[in-house]
Amino acid sequence: MYKPGLHLISEFKVVDPEVLKNSQAMKQVLDDLIQEHKLSKVGEVYHQFPDSGYTAMVCLTESHISIHTWPEFNQVTFDVFLSNFMNYNNEIVTNIHNSVLAFLNATDVRLTQLNR
Amino acid sequence: MYKPGLHLISEFKVVDPEVLKNSQAMKQVLDDLIQEHKLSKVGEVYHQFPDSGYTAMVCLTESHISIHTWPEFNQVTFDVFLSNFMNYNNEIVTNIHNSVLAFLNATDVRLTQLNR
């Protein structure tokens, strides 16, 4: 079977749940990472719940990034999946994952690593 | 830790790889399933590669669905994740997952089940 690539899937908490209400700050972080790593965005959705969390996805030719936040529970579900079809992207998956967790000051991280 | 919900993640092959080139047929299937299960779509991306596969995501208030196809390798990566924040959705996750695999005539399924 063809092995598309690395998929990192995490749940975590943050130091200050207020950051989980700001989808536009996350869009800036992800856009910068996508540009830095020369990935190809083909669409995105950032849906902000009023005075609450957000649900967001970035669709890439290489696959996708998704993040869903629940400030009510101080909780985030996040995942990054890039295929290695055109380039070897495993290190980029790890870099994006860790950069987002660092930006949000993540704590109590539960990480699942799938080599799909 | 708050446990958002069930995330099913699969890789599989299909009987006829031609179906992996038709993003619009998949959009119809997913739209029907979203309506049937009364989920709330807040955005979507269907990106068709010319005479090849597609990469697609549906963003839901409940979380997301993604599918990436590689007819070159007769391969699909697919995932469905719904939170139980407003309703208990675990059975819906399984129903959507299995309905899409049935529509595509999936074979050689590798399934990962995460209770996030």
Please characterize this protein's 3D structure.
2 copies of one chain form a homodimer. By secondary structure, chain A is of the alpha+beta class. Chain A has a single domain, classed as S-adenosylmethionine decarboxylase, CATH 3.60.90.10. Chain A contains 2 helices and 6 strands; from the N terminus they run βαββββαβ. The first copy, chain A, has helices at 23-36, 90-103, and strands spanning 5-14, 41-48, 54-60, 63-70, 75-83, 106-115. The radius of gyration of chain A is 14 Å and the shape is globular. Chain A starts with a strand and ends with a strand. The model of chain A has no long low-confidence stretch (mean pLDDT 95). At the A-B interface, β1, β2, β3, β4 and β5 of A face β1, β2, β3, β4 and β5 of B.
Question: Tags for this entry?
Answer:
homodimer; 116 residues; alpha+beta; S-adenosylmethionine decarboxylase; six-stranded antiparallel sheet; 2 helices; globular
For this structure, the quaternary state is: homodimer
The helix-and-strand class of chain A reads alpha+beta
Let me know the largest β-sheet of chain A: 6 strands, antiparallel
Care to count the β-strands of chain A? 6
Total count of domains of chain A: 1
* Helical content band of chain A: 10-25%
- Any idea of the CATH class of chain A? Alpha Beta
If you compute it from the alpha carbons, what radius of gyration of chain A comes out, rounded to the nearest whole angstrom?
Answer: 14 Å
Largest interface: A-B, 35 and 35 residues
Reported by name, the CATH topology of chain A is S-adenosylmethionine decarboxylase
